[in-house]
């Protein structure tokens, strides 16, 4: 597994942040830290985060609220940290959307192992630093450097703008993007086009990469919110 994933670590104790950051960076990960819930959400909104290590007891906004807000728009892996050890507290944490749970004090080496395991499961088809990405046993192939997309071995002929939008999705699998956020990520904050033009781009991309563009399995619609990219067909809920 390529380790160049970006991890957000959120805790209100600086010494804990420093230790976790040091261990994760030693293992090859990029790490961003935050000391309160509001800052964590701001960072998540502006960075391409692949996993979150989240303490429950945070100032300004609790870890529970941060998790709930993120779960509305994304299935990004979340590991919760807490001083509470009761079984019902752990169950509550998992039920609100956490993928894993560690009770303080904990082994940082164990945390790193759990981080790696979660990333393998969540991004098994995706390596963020790879030059060529393949999905569903070669059904879709994307050459990042050459900007070439192939569907079942045939070049899909995406335009430059379509490719930019697709790469935003590839960098953030399973994350929901509003039209506005897609425009900002793909073209920059000063883009003068209308965010509704994203719908046209999505329609064109689907016609080129989906087996049936009327029933898309890669770029799916999250009604009332936007779009997300699903890297594996077996993740699609029929």
TrEMBL record:
PANTHER family from the UniProt entry: ALKALINE PHOSPHATASE SYNTHESIS TRANSCRIPTIONAL REGULATORY PROTEIN PHOP (PTHR48111:SF73), REGULATOR OF RPOS (PTHR48111)
DNA-binding region ranges: 130-231
Domain called OmpR/PhoB-type: residue spans: 130-231
Example GO biological process: regulation of DNA-templated transcription
Entry's Gene Ontology molecular function annotations: phosphorelay response regulator activity; transcription cis-regulatory region binding
InterPro entries membership: CheY-like_superfamily (IPR011006), OmpR/PhoB-type_DNA-bd (IPR001867), Sig_transdc_resp-reg_C-effctor (IPR016032), Sig_transdc_resp-reg_receiver (IPR001789), WalR-like (IPR039420), WH-like_DNA-bd_sf (IPR036388)
Any single Gene Ontology cellular-component annotation: protein-DNA complex
Residue positions where 4-aspartylphosphate is found in the record: 55
PROSITE patterns: OMPR_PHOB (PS51755), RESPONSE_REGULATORY (PS50110)
Source lineage: Bacteria, Bacillati, Bacillota, Clostridia, Eubacteriales
Short name of one Pfam family: Response_reg
Name by which UniProt lists this protein: Stage 0 sporulation protein A homolog
Keywords recorded for this protein, A-Z: DNA-binding, Phosphoprotein, Transcription, Transcription regulation, Two-component regulatory system
Biological function: May play the central regulatory role in sporulation. It may be an element of the effector pathway responsible for the activation of sporulation genes in response to nutritional stress. Spo0A may act in concert with spo0H (a sigma factor) to control the expression of some genes that are critical to the sporulation process.
Domain Response regulatory: start-end pairs: 6-119
